[in-house]
Automatic annotation (TrEMBL):
SMART domains: GuKc (SM00072). It catalyses: GMP + ATP = GDP + ADP. Keywords: ATP-binding, Cytoplasm, Kinase, Nucleotide-binding, Transferase. Its main location: cytoplasm. This is Guanylate kinase.
């Protein structure tokens, strides 16, 4: 059976999805990594069209109204992020192996419209490690830390909605496992 051409990578906050997808962008040119639209401001070093399409809230509204978003969500409180339907469909029609790195809400929307896609959950090596990453900075109040841990518990419970789990114990290894789940043979690097 041939591999589904669309893979969705999601997982809890702070699990390192961004690091894994950056590694894939830099090391696996055979993966077509979707570039999302976002209303958040670019961080230093981020380029429009490479890391994101940086748009205004009005432009984002328009994309949603025109039905151009395959999925979209408000992430971390206020900024909106979405996947552009047209570019993803064109890449799939072109036979590319498409990867979306999106949040859980977005993954659930893609599951509604494309249940045949491949859903991969990126998990932390352990609950303790997750707690360390979430509360480790020591800048949050105990209440805020508790809130983050509650959110993390809910997010971890979503694992059963996915076809596969990849543990992010090491970025290079996790990336290699992910691309092999996409039907691409990982090369020696
Ligand atoms: P950051 O602002 O750190 O680049 O990304 C924040 C979060 O937004 C990450 O959890 C990432 O998975 C999520 N995200 C990025 N692009 C999209 C998208 O197109 N759709 C959805 N639903 N989430 C996204």
């Amino acid at each position: 059976m041939s591999q589904p051409r669309l893979t969705v990578l999601a997982g809890p906050t702070a699990v390192g999805k961004g690091t894994v997808s950056t590694y894939i962008r830099d090391n696996y040119p055979e993966v077509w990594l979707s570039v999302s639209a976002t209303t958040r401001a670019p961080r230093p070093g981020e380029e429009n069209g490479v890391h994101y399409f940086f748009v205004t809230t009005e432009e984002f509204d328009e994309l949603v109204a025109e039905g151009q978003m395959l999925e979209w969500a408000v992430v971390h409180g206020h900024n909106r992020y979405g996947t552009l339907r047209r570019t993803v469909e064109a890449a799939m029609a072109d036979g590319k192996s498409v990867l979306l790195e999106i949040d859980l809400q977005g993954a659930r929307q893609v599951k509604e419209s494309m249940p045949e896609a491949n859903f991969v959950f990126l998990a932390p090596p352990s609950w303790d490690e997750m707690v360390r990453r979430l509360v480790g900075r020591g800048t949050e109040t105990p209440e805020e830390q508790q809130q983050r841990l509650e959110t993390a518990k809910l997010e971890l419970a979503a694992e059963s909605e996915f076809n596969h789990t990849v543990i992010n114990d090491d970025v290079q290894r996790a990336a290699a496992e992910l691309v092999s789940l996409m039907g691409i043979s990982p090369r020696q690097r």
